[in-house]
Write a structure and sequence with these properties.
By secondary structure, the protein is an alpha+beta fold. It has 7 helices and 13 strands. The chain starts with a strand and ends in a 7-residue tail after the last helix. Keywords: Hydrolase, Metal-binding, Zinc.
Length: 212
């Protein structure tokens, strides 16, 4: 069975998630945007052996510590979709712009595409490409625990911004309604910022995508 712990990092309070298989204790960090020492310490405290870094997209608050952690721990970087290559290339500039510690650039070990899957211990997690916030944004759907790690696609009561380079509002709405809603109303999602919610609750009440 998969387990996870949400660990807000950086001044943007980005929800990095430590996810692991409770049989093998192999784990991954989803969107390690910063505070890498604290993330490593939390994994060690829980007895989780980090085996990979998973990225939903390459904005600085989601990917800022990725290059450093991958280098220090010898971990593969999984994701995002190649559409975010230009955001990865710009990480050093992003870090300066937003006052973050300088981010190391990196090349993902494996790019992800819609319909792919990633493995963690005995568990398999589905990947969906959900562009709109960024062109290469992906989400990780852990159906066995009815959870989806959605990055900045959807929030409790809101949706991701689309005014950054490569963003597109109509594309984002389509990603939500065509890729997320079919995962089921009971699926709980872990957004990139703020509290968890369910797809059913947002489908009914989110003012940006409600009743869609």
């Amino acid at each position: 069975m998969l387990r996870y712990l949400t660990l807000p990092v950086t001044a943007f309070q980005q929800n990095c998630s430590l996810i692991w298989c409770d049989q093998t204790m192999e784990g991954a960090l989803i969107d390690p945007g910063g505070e890498g020492e604290g993330l490593k310490a939390e994994a060690q405290r829980l007895g989780v052996k980090l085996t990979a870094l998973w990225l939903t997209h390459a904005h600085i608050d989601h990917a800022g510590a990725t290059g450093t952690l991958a280098r220090e721990l010898g971990l593969p970087i999984i994701g995002p979709h190649p559409g975010d290559q230009f955001w990865i290339d710009g990480l050093p500039q992003q870090s300066k712009m937003f006052g973050f510690p300088e981010a190391e650039t990196f090349t993902p070990t494996r790019w992800l595409a819609d319909g792919d899957s990633v493995s963690l211990g005995h568990a398999t997690v589905a990947v969906r490409h959900c562009p709109g916030h960024t062109p290469g944004h992906v989400v990780f759907h852990a159906a066995e625990i009815s959870r989806c790690f959605v990055g900045d696609v959807l929030f409790a009561g809101s949706i991701g911004r689309t005014d950054f380079p490569g963003g597109d509002h109509d594309t984002l709405i389509n990603s939500i309604t065509q890729r997320l809603w079919p995962m089921g109303d009971d699926t709980i999602f872990i957004p990139g910022h703020g509290p968890e919610s369910s797809f059913g609750r947002e489908r009914r009440s989110n003012p940006y995508v409600g009743n869609t």
